[in-house]
Amino acid sequence: METSMANTIPAARPRVPNFSSGPCAKRPGWTLKALSDAPLGRSHRAKIGKDKLKLAIDLTREVLQVPADYRIGIVPASDTGAMEMAMWSMLGARGVDMLAWESFGSGWITDVVKQLKLQDVRLFEAPYGELPNLKKVDSKNRDVVFTWNGTTSGVRVADASWIADDREGLTICDATSAAFAQRLDWPKLDVVTFSWQKVLGGEGAHGMIILSPRAVERLVTYKPAWPLPKVFRMTSGGKLSEGIFVGETINTPSMLCVEDYIDALEWAKKVGGLDGLVKKVEGNARVLAKFVRENDWIDFLAVKPKTRSNTSVCLKFTDPAVTALPADQQAAFAKQVVSIIEKAGAGYDLGHYRDAPPGLRIWCGATVQSRDLKALLPWITYAFNEAKASLGKKAA
């Protein structure tokens, strides 16, 4: 690899260079042997399959510290499937406030406005890097749909203090890149969804839906005006399909993926449960915060420190030579930085989300080691300097 006279290639590389924001890095020490107890070739409806699925649910409750009266179900189609299931099954009973400050929240707005075609919808949107004004959200009288952590913007809600304690509507929360890394305020949340492949590094295609007693009441007392696809149905004959929440799934799950999720949850217990996971993630986030403080050419996309994600950390280039470029060239610059790092085998899947402002998105979830993040940082500096030097060559 060629390098400029003033730019030195870093001597070391991360031991695990996987920094994707989903699917995310596997837990430290993971091997295929961890899945040797998977009941492959057996029906998920057999006792052995149901027992594995129930174990996954029980461990989820233990590690996430989910209240005993909340129900937990394994559903198809990852976090997206879980969110769609919740919105199609529960929205429409009253007005809804939709919050969005990144691509996934915007996607939920599209579904509610253009697919469900609800009439009483209020939108609270903010550009990448910011939050909407949460004080204007009517959580007392209306349903509320929001993401706890904006995966593609690196912006999260600091807490749930803005949600009314005496609310009459439901709060539906997409917590896919927050669960296991940030403390969810369960009394303020009625529906929580997430996927296995984020903070715990599980495999894809399966989602989790967690329902409060108030959410269950909505399900059994409200019938939407539209037909529900089979994979969205959580009730039958006006009663909750209890089997979903004890290990009976709506469609066929991968028992290999289930085993992998169980392995990740067991690992989570070994590192201290939720407290240990949050500690690991916060430590990772501090590594990047120190890097940003020490370099004036890069900054967080999140405007306010208290709303910065500790998992999907989004960064932007602030060097005047880059910010002066047209938008398409800024995106090309960011892609060049990512390409240099990837070609060196020093870090993979670091690019900004396709709809997000140009920059980097570095996953700092619990399965990422701080030492690997520290080893990545010199490569970011090196790649930035190389890409910046090429700007001068192009101008010449």
From TrEMBL:
One GO molecular-function entry: O-phospho-L-serine:2-oxoglutarate aminotransferase activity
Record-listed E.C. numbers: 2.6.1.52
Reactions catalysed according to its record: O-phospho-L-serine + 2-oxoglutarate = 3-phosphooxypyruvate + L-glutamate
Keyword Phosphoprotein: no
Region (Disordered): 1-20
Cofactor: pyridoxal 5'-phosphate
Family to which the UniProt record says this protein belongs: Belongs to the class-V pyridoxal-phosphate-dependent aminotransferase family. SerC subfamily.
Classification via PANTHER family: ALANINE--GLYOXYLATE AMINOTRANSFERASE, AMINOTRANSFERASE CLASS V
Protein name, UniProt field: phosphoserine transaminase
